[in-house]
Amino acid sequence: MNEVKLSKRLEEVVREIPAGSTVADIGSDHAYLPCYAIVNHIATKAVAGEVVDGPFRSAQATVAENGLQGKIDVRKGNGLAVISPGEVDVITIAGMGGALIRDILESGKEKLNGVTRLILQPNIAAHHIREWFIENDWELIREKIVKEDGKIYEILVGERGNPLAPYSDRKQAELLIGPFLMKEKSDVFIEKWECELKNFQNILKQLERATESEDTKAKRNEVMEKMKMVGDVLS
């Protein structure tokens, strides 16, 4: 059996898997995450889902190299189509955009029966996931932020519960920025949002040069509102 190593961000994802879980890792790529979870006795069984042929074959190879064919089922399919309702109790999705993760959850909602925890690592636009949680009665119970190879990632953990529990009267800012992350204000968090603030400023400059229309006016107001929310949190 080969030693399975994970990146820092995937290690943080795995730490959120309760011991004894059955896990589906969607967009599993090389299946490193489920292999690590099985080898380290965190998960008892796993499904590695991949829609693209190359990563699907890579996942099969990793599972075979580690002799885990009896514990990990590598399946080819789109999103949650690779699992059946009640088959797993934890779903992990890492390394995609927040909007794509939301769409995967939305299109596969009927597959979430029996799932008790969602562990999601969006590369960008985590607010789409926070909004989806509220709309579908999932409670955001924890957030993490990690820096790896010069990039910053957020990890969101959800369970069934009160979807409004983590939010206050600053809900719009918390949806954008993260209610738990806002409270912690780690160095990595500050670095991320200082960078985002500069991005918003650049977008605003471009909009000011654009031809005036209802669309540009609305977009400018939206960017200014985001800048205010981020500025208030950082101050």
UniProtKB/TrEMBL annotation:
SUPFAM superfamilies: S-adenosyl-L-methionine-dependent methyltransferases. Pfam families: TrmK. Residues 190-217 form a coiled coil. The keyword Coiled coil applies. The keyword Metal-binding does not apply. Keywords: Coiled coil. InterPro entries: SAM-dependent_MTases_sf, TrmK. One of its GO terms (molecular function) is tRNA (adenine(22)-N1)-methyltransferase activity. PANTHER family: TRNA (ADENINE(22)-N(1))-METHYLTRANSFERASE. This is tRNA (Adenine(22)-N(1))-methyltransferase TrmK. It comes from Bacillus cytotoxicus.
